[in-house]
Design brief:
The protein starts with a strand and ends in a 5-residue tail after the last helix. Helix 3 runs antiparallel to helix 10 and helix 4 packs antiparallel against helix 5. With 619 residues, it is of the alpha/beta class. A hairpin with a 3-residue loop joins strand 4 and strand 5. It is built from 10 helices and 30 strands. The strands form 8 sheets. Strands 16-15-17-18-24-23-22-20 form an 8-stranded mixed sheet, covered by helices on one side. A 5-stranded mixed sheet has the order 5-4-3-6-7, sandwiched between helices. The protein has 3 domains: 151 residues, 3-Layer(aba) Sandwich (Rossmann fold); 170 residues, Immunoglobulin-like (Sandwich), CATH 2.60.40.10; 171 residues, 3-Layer(aba) Sandwich (Rossmann fold), CATH 3.40.50.880.
């Protein structure tokens, strides 16, 4: 045993004072009474108890001395760590990853158990025994630097909460070992986690692992993403992946909701260890003013409710400004007029000016090529119909047959052009790459290109080698799809899935934008009191929807855990800490350090002495 405050031994000088007080004789004052009859009887009984009277005084003296020594021992702060005289440094690593939110059979979470154990260690802090606190989420964070202040450590622990992030233990152990390298005395790393690492990194410090929790069954959503359908941009499809991390089959329902309104309910049955993919293709693509929230929820009750709900954002339809330069084309005008994603303006070739290109995402030239048009010098995105900016050689091709369609190209994806009748096509060749331009022919008739597309950075161009009015294409369903897809591709929109961020990822916020630091997942979007905005880089640690404000329309970021390592609760490693390595307060003494027990014993004896005194058992 080691005494943290040995200077308290000076108070032993008070022992003789206590003993001296018991040797003092009481000075009795004379009192005249009317008779001695009763006093003689009292003196006779007192004589018979003379021996016991002496023991009564001795017991009272020993009781007071014991109370004094217990209080003195509590003041001296004893500990059962012999190495404390040399000084010691301990780094507490508290796991706050998503798996710590799992609920154990007793009703408490793994994090609550881990937090109680960390509080037990914090009680051992003292002048020569310093502790530092690391929290492990997506990355280790120093919550409290080395200190011997017990109150500071315990106060910091009350403000620590579990996150929805995932991360690795190795980085936290490496950081803890680096922090201990500059400390004197003995070094120790205490890792409090849900499962012990299989192969922890080598450290120069003693590593003690406390693995809290038991093996639990769980079912989770491991992927949730959306994208607009290329065949119907007004509709989105949703990909949902679920997995059963348990030893028994699970029967549950998945509830799909759009902006808080129920959209679809589908029953699911997952065998033990089964992973399932489901695709929903009837989700309407939101308008520009919609909040674009899409949520999926499993109705099953399991150990980790966190991964039973997933969040995604539906990319809203972007309004593209299109300039149509034509002498008059009823098909094109009607088509662009009914396209909800396009706002077009019509001008004749005589009224066209090149400076107009800057105001539009795409420019359609119908039977017209501007005078002096130079692809290398022109700015903008262009679609040429029945007019070719590329040179053509030879005689026109009569009744060309569509033989090749590039289904992977955004302009021709899911466009069926088989059996289309074309009267004539210009004999053009695919231009070679030059000045940063690259060209492809997603539509061909044997070796003759019928559609040429080119890209240079963000600038794009497309040209049809035939006049659509000299074909039956305008009478087919493929015509509006071809024009719409080509315009969307020229304007820069791709049919990609919405961005998915994991809790703990670092998200770059565009310039002029800011994001809410906490998720806004209620049906009524309200900014929390005292909430501030984050700019530049943002690291969300909670799942949900985050509002992005600033220049332009309001946007949303969806954050999920999506980690099999966090959702799989079947593996729960044991503690590698021997009994001697556990803190004194975590043993059989109800988690109290020795000095508190000494103070409690002194309090109990004081109460007992008070009761004996009033019962006239002590002096």
């Amino acid at each position: 045993m080691t005494w943290l405050q040995p200077w308290s031994a000076w108070f032993l000088a008070g022992v003789p004072v206590i003993v001296l007080l018991y040797f003092l004789r009481l000075k009795r004052r004379p009192l005249t009474v009317s008779t001695l009859m009763f006093w003689q009887r009292a003196m006779q009984e007192s004589g018979h108890r003379a021996f016991f009277q002496k023991f009564r005084h001795l017991f009272s003296l020993l009781l007071h001395l014991l109370i004094f020594l217990l209080l003195l021992g509590a003041l001296a702060r004893p500990v059962f760590d012999r190495g404390i005289l040399e000084g010691s440094a301990t780094v507490l690593i508290l796991d706050t990853r998503a798996r710590m939110q799992a609920v154990e059979p007793g009703g408490h979470t793994r994090f609550e158990t881990a937090l109680q154990l960390a509080q037990d260690y914090a009680r051992q802090a003292g002048g020569a025994r310093e502790f530092a606190l690391l929290t492990l989420a997506a990355a280790p964070t120093v919550a409290v630097p080395f200190t011997g202040d017990e109150k500071l450590l315990r106060s910091a622990l009350t403000h620590v909460s579990p996150t929805d992030a995932t991360g690795g233990i190795a980085s936290a152990i490496t950081l803890a070992d680096a922090l201990l390298a500059a400390r004197k005395g003995s070094h120790r790393i205490v890792l409090i986690t849900a499962s012990a690492p299989d192969a922890p990194p080598k450290t120069a410090s003693e590593l003690i692992t406390h693995a809290v929790g038991t093996s639990l069954d769980n079912v989770a959503i491991t992927r949730f993403a959306t994208r607009p359908l290329p065949a119907n941009p007004e509709t989105s499809e949703v990909l949902l992946e679920t997995q059963n991390f348990g030893r028994t089959p699970v029967h549950t329902d998945v509830e799909l909701a759009f902006d808080g309104r129920p959209l679809e309910v589908k029953p699911l049955t997952l065998a033990p260890g089964e992973r399932r993919l489901d695709v929903f293709t009837s989700v309407p693509r939101p308008a520009l003013s919609a909040r674009v929230w899409l949520t999926a929820k499993l109705t099953a009750t399991d150990a980790l409710p966190l991964d039973n709900i997933a969040y995604a954002t539906l990319p809203p339809a972007r309004l593209n400004r299109v300039l149509l330069v034509s002498k008059g084309n009823t098909f094109l005008e009607k088509l662009l007029g009914v396209d909800a994603a396009v706002k077009f303006q019509f001008v004749t070739p005589d009224a066209y000016q090149p400076v107009m290109n800057e105001k539009f995402g795409a420019v359609i030239f119908d039977g017209f090529v501007p005078a002096g048009f130079d692809l290398e010098k022109s700015a903008g995105n262009f679609l040429f119909l029945n007019a070719m900016p590329f040179g053509s050689k030879g005689t026109p091709i009569d009744q060309p047959v569509v033989t090749d369609v590039d289904a992977a190209h955004p302009a021709t994806r899911l466009v069926s052009l088989h059996n289309v009748t074309i009267l004539h096509a210009k004999p053009i060749e695919l231009p070679a790459a030059h000045d940063g331009w690259t060209f492809t022919a997603p539509l061909r008739s044997a070796e003759h290109p019928l559609l040429i597309t080119g890209e240079r950075g963000r600038q794009r161009i497309a040209a049809l080698a035939f006049d659509v009015l000299e074909s039956d294409l305008p009478l087919r369903v493929a015509f509006p799809l071809l024009i719409h897809s080509t315009v969307q591709w020229l304007a820069g929109e791709r049919a990609d899935s919405s961005p998915v961020f994991a809790a703990g990822d670092v998200v770059q916020i565009p310039p002029g934008k800011s994001v809410a630091p906490t998720p806004l997942t209620s049906s009524l979007v309200r900014t929390a009191e005292g909430q501030t905005s984050v700019t530049g880089f943002f690291q969300p640690l909670r799942n949900g929807f985050y509002q992005v404000t600033g220049d332009g329309p309001v946007g949303w970021i969806a954050v999920n855990t999506f980690s099999a390592a966090e959702s799989d609760l079947r593996v729960a490693g044991g503690s590698n800490a021997p009994a001697a390595s556990l803190p004194f307060s975590a043993g059989a003494f109800h988690r109290w350090p020795p000095w508190q027990w000494l103070a409690l014993a002194a309090l109990v004896l004081i109460v007992a002495e008070w009761w004996l005194f009033h019962r006239r058992k002590t002096e």
